[in-house]
Specification:
The chain has 174 residues and is α+β, with helices and mostly antiparallel strands. It has a single domain, classed as Aminopeptidase (3-Layer(aba) Sandwich). 28% of the residues lie in helices and 24% in strands. The protein contains six helices and five strands. It has a five-stranded mixed β-sheet with strand order 1-2-3-4-5, sandwiched between helices. The chain is globular. The relative contact order is 0.16.
Length: 174
């Protein structure tokens, strides 16, 4: 059972990102109730999501909450009660670098019609602050070539090539 509505303790969020939000917008941790605020629909602007039910969402939310290494943040438009942007930081514990931690930035998305409001920049800034707050010595982000200039403006550097292998029969083919 979910012990809290929020995925993680919101006190880890830096105040600077909230200050950059337009009126009636808030940046905050993902909440289990965000399913009904269009979180999944927002993600569909990034990739194929599939037919995620509210129960599936709640179960995954609980798993992420229990693991304690998932930090999904959203920007909510309070006027429409809709999620307009999101991003995820997954913190990986390592043995290298004196048992350090690496932050993996994933699933950065801004809903259609919401571009140009600097939501993507605010999400990246907040995820980088979360990486620092959780003790990460570096953060990694994979992106397509056309998104490199945006992420460079956010302070990230192009460091190489990503490789991937998909498991046959998995959901990546949705």
């Amino acid at each position: 059972m979910v012990s809290s509505n929020s995925l993680f303790n919101g006190s880890l969020l830096g105040a600077s990102a909230q200050l950059s939000m337009p009126a009636n917008h808030v940046i905050r941790p993902l909440e289990v109730t965000d399913f009904r605020k269009g979180y999944v629909e927002c993600l569909e602007n990034l990739t194929v999501v599939g037919d995620v039910t509210e129960q599936m969402f709640a179960e995954s939310f609980e798993d992420m909450q229990r693991a304690g290494c998932y930090f999904v943040i959203v920007i909510e438009d309070l006027d429409s009660a809709k999620i307009v942007s999101s991003g995820t930081l997954v913190v990986e514990q390592k043995f290298i670098h004196m048992c350090g931690r690496v932050g993996h930035i994933e699933d950065v998305v801004v809903a259609k019609g919401q571009q140009g409001k600097r939501f993507g920049f605010a999400i990246i800034k907040q995820l980088m602050e979360l990486a620092t707050a959780t003790g990460c010595y570096k953060s990694i982000l994979d992106c397509s070539a056309e998104n490199v200039p945006f992420y460079e403006k956010c302070g990230l550097e192009n460091k190489g090539i990503q490789m991937a292998a998909y498991v046959p029969g998995t959901a990546h083919k949705l």
